[in-house]
Design a protein that fits this description.
heterodimer; A: alpha/beta; Rossmann fold; de novo design (two linked rop proteins); 3 domains; 13 strands; B: Arc Repressor Mutant, subunit A; elongated; NuoE_N (chain B); 2 iron, 2 sulfur cluster binding (chain B)
């Protein structure tokens, strides 16, 4: 049987007749969970989230309940909740649908989370490009405030918390939680050094702060609704709940698909739901969870012992189950679930040049290895796509990436290094072959001086 | 600096929402840029005074974030996403066609002042690439083959109401007071 989606977060996304206004949300049982949650003790709600095993959906996959536990409650300073809606990892477009099509789900999730952690105020940091998304959220917040679901004395519980929508201005680094906090404070989005600036202790305005992704906060609503232990039954050990896979690139039906963690494989996702490769083409490579995650090559085999079951596995890309644990066992990450698919028409040198143009542009410039390394890689890979590559460039590229990894304040350094390292491991032969033949007119080159895919 | 009354009203309404004035730097830059078309030195000084911070603090923000600009742009702002998912589906060719049709080089403004075309990083609509954002409207699946309608719409937008961005004085001209 073909695989089935299991839509929890996306239950109403793309549903005919479903609108973003509060009346539609209320008709579908909206804000009932919030009312129920306000009857409970905040610490019990935190426990439910902890028991659910929910991991953050912004890319890093850190356990949400654990993050909440780190909150410094003894300082007496106000606690803040920040929703990270700065979705900008290439390949990732899942939060957009929640914000545009079901904004009240996010607001209800935020109101519950804010009550659970006893936040004084909540912010939604939304990327600047989502101009309409910010308008939709502002309207939804007004509607929710008018009905008493946020603002003063929420639903007569005595608890008050307001949500403010704050627009970013086009910097990818502001999706990193400490960069986001700096940006929210009105500064350049330079990530902070951790420790001591763990947001749960020293976050926004040097106060304890929880930063969670849009999807994560929306999941909280469903955890409280079904109970933490019940939620933990969905998915696999170490990766509970559903994941939204945003598939883009060379497939027949790109789009977003919500799947229970571990219930299907990449092959089923790409063939059954996405319709397979374009006519006459074959899949060549796959970036599984946003452009910073390590690339997988179709045809390669992944072997080892599965961390959950202890069973030996021998998988091709098509056989990898769609969960964080299995992907990690194959040397890559689930990340944000934004999968970019490339078929056999793709020149991998152009792919890496495209990615390096992105990471070079988006480095905040604070740490020397990332600032200099990403720009160097950008210049070098662009030159290579123009037909001026040298055979030693391939090793040099890997060397630069190795010098960046682990030497920066935030994970942007890894985001630059991992694509290069994984390309080196999997497509080195293709690079060298292209370089060897660049004089004889074989292969594609772009005289205009930029990669052209 | 002459800001529209609605802009001033919006700015005032933001202050009670934030515990710290400096947090308003990005929102104020957005509002002033929407009103003026760009952020002049005068505008940055005005924002700094409003927030009771050094003008340098505003400049360092404006120079960091790609969406803020210190020069006027064309009447219609066309942003083409160039990142991987869109590129795999032809974003570079889309951009070339738009440049040709609008007589405007990427990164610049057309001679008639009507268009500015920019290549931008991921707009987060990768499943429907290539995507093109025209002012604040997003157009999806803008492959090189499906551009006729989009080009017509962009041209239509350019012939609509003038906006401040186009008429704002250039730095260095007598009309410029920055």
């Amino acid at each position: 049987m073909a695989i089935q989606e299991r839509r929890i977060i996306y239950k109403h996304v793309d549903e005919p007749g479903y609108t973003a206004d509060i009346d539609c949300y209320l008709r579908n049982g909206g804000y009932e969970v919030l009312k129920k949650a306000l009857q409970a003790k905040p610490e019990d709600l935190c426990k439910e989230v902890f028991d659910s095993g929910l991991t953050g959906r912004g890319g890093a996959g850190f356990p949400t309940g654990m993050k909440w536990k780190f909150l410094d409650r003894k300082s007496g300073k106000p606690i803040y909740l920040v929703c990270n809606a700065d979705e900008s990892e290439p390949g990732t477009f899942k939060d957009r649908q929640i914000i545009y099509q079901d904004p009240h789900q996010l607001i209800e999730g935020m109101a519950i989370s804010a009550y659970a952690i006893q936040a004084k105020q909540a912010f939604i940091y939304i990327r600047g490009e989502f101009i309409n998304g910010a308008r939709i959220l502002e309207t939804a917040i007004e509607e929710a405030r008018a009905k008493g679901f946020i603002g003063e004395d929420i639903c007569g519980s005595g608890y008050s918390c307001d949500i403010v929508v704050h627009r970013g201005a086009g910097a990818y680094i502001c999706g990193e939680e400490t960069g986001l906090i700096e940006s929210l404070e009105g500064k350049r989005g330079y990530p902070r050094i951790k420790p001591p600036y763990f947001p749960a202790v020293l976050g926004l305005y040097q106060c304890p702060t929880i930063v969670n992704n849009v999807e994560t906060l929306s999941q909280v609503k469903h955890i409280i609704e079904m109970g933490g232990t019940e939620f933990a039954k969905i998915g696999v050990k170490g990766d509970t709940g559903t994941h939204i896979f945003g598939v883009s690139g060379h497939v027949q039906r790109p789009g977003y698909y919500e799947i229970e963690a571990g219930s299907a494989t990449f092959g089923e996702l790409l063939y059954d739901l996405c319709g397979g490769p374009l006519p006459g083409r074959k899949f060549k490579a796959l970036i599984p969870g946003g452009s910073s995650t390590k690339i997988l090559r179709f045809g390669e085999r992944f072997t080892g012992k599965h961390p959950n079951t202890g069973e030996p596995f021998d998988w091709g890309v098509e056989d990898i189950p769609l969960d964080a644990i299995s992907l990690r066992a194959c040397g890559t990450f689930l990340g944000t679930g934004g999968s970019i698919v490339m078929d056999d028409s793709t020149d991998m040198m152009e792919v890496i040049a495209n990615l390096m143009a992105f990471y070079g542009h988006e480095s905040c410039g604070q740490c020397t290895p990332c600032r200099e390394g990403s720009l160097w890689l950008n210049k070098m890979t662009t030159r290579m796509t123009c037909g001026h590559a040298r055979p030693e460039d391939v090793d040099l590229m890997k060397n630069i990436a190795d010098q960046i990894e682990g030497r920066t304040i935030c994970a942007h350094g890894e985001a630059v290094a991992w694509p290069v390292q994984s390309h080196y491991n999997k497509f080195k032969d293709e690079y060298l072959d292209k370089i060897a033949h660049q004089g004889d007119g074989r292969g594609r080159y772009n005289p205009n001086g930029y990669p052209l895919i | 600096m002459d800001l529209a009354p609605e802009t001033l009203q919006k700015i005032e309404s933001l202050f009670p929402k934030y515990p710290d004035k400096r947090s308003l730097t990005l929102p104020l830059c957005h509002l002033v840029q929407e009103d003026q078309g760009y952020l002049s030195d005068e505008a940055m000084k005005w924002i700094a005074a409003k927030l009771e911070i050094e003008p340098m603090k505003v400049l360092e923000v404006v120079s960091f974030y790609p969406m803020f600009r210190r020069k006027p742009i064309g009447k219609v702002h066309v942003k083409v996403c160039r990142t991987l998912s869109c590129a795999l589906n032809g974003a570079y060719k889309t951009c070339e066609k738009l440049e040709e049709a609008l007589a405007c080089k990427r990164g610049g403004t057309s001679e008639d002042g009507n268009y500015t075309i920019e290549f931008v990083e991921c707009i987060a609509d990768c499943g429907k690439g290539p995507v093109v954002q025209v002012d604040d409207r997003l157009y999806e699946n803008c492959g090189p083959e499906q551009l006729e309608e989009l080009i017509a719409r962009i041209k239509e937008a350019a012939s609509a109401d003038p906006v401040t961005a186009r008429t704002a004085p250039e730095p260095g001209t007598p009309a410029y007071k920055g």
